[in-house]
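Protein modeling request. Please complete all fields; requests missing the sequence field cannot be processed.
Requester role: graduate student
Desired output: 3D structure, token encoding
Chains: 1
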Amino acid sequence: MSRYCSLCGRSFCSAQALEQHQRYKVHSYVCDCGKTLYSQTAFEQHTSSRVHAERTFECPLCEQKFKQPSAIAHHVESGICPRAAPVTRQQVTAAVHALKIVPQISIQHRIEGPTSGVPNDSIFIPSTLYTATELAWSPFSRAYECYLCPRKFRSLDSLNQHLNSAAHDRHEFRCPKKKCGRTFKLISAFIQHIESEACGLARFKQIERHTKALTDRFTRLLTM
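Delivered output (224 residues):
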């Protein structure tokens, strides 16, 4: 049975031969976003993916819109949200833990952080702020060295950004699917994992519904 390329009209004796013809980038498809694809299937998958989804997810604090639920969580965690300031990623993590989500996604730690003088139901726990000084400069490596890991930086500002990023945070969340069990430092990373459907824990529509309920609940905690 002959197979025809719809773009150039050439015929092939098998589907494999046609696929090979397309794989060699004989024809290209350029998306409006500028990305070039080399098969009709790849082009259709790209244009129908969430890359080109509309911004339908609204931040419950500032009403800015996003394409994916994980982007809202990252928006708040990173301190970009103007209405969430000065909420930190540690406070967002504490708010999610306080929800006691079922199935359990929170990782239980034997030793918790400093919470002296802070009510048990409060999410506004103190955050550790690291500040490196010029003493972090190493004349041997000619760079500023992180005292928590082997990484080196050309500037003191870059080192301090690293120290106050999530690089040295604990893993706080675990995928509840037994065959997966991946762990994450940030709730945005955990939601992104679920969005990818890599472990099949939930479909995207379910993620939309659960994430909205989650953001609504922890937003109330953040604004109390």
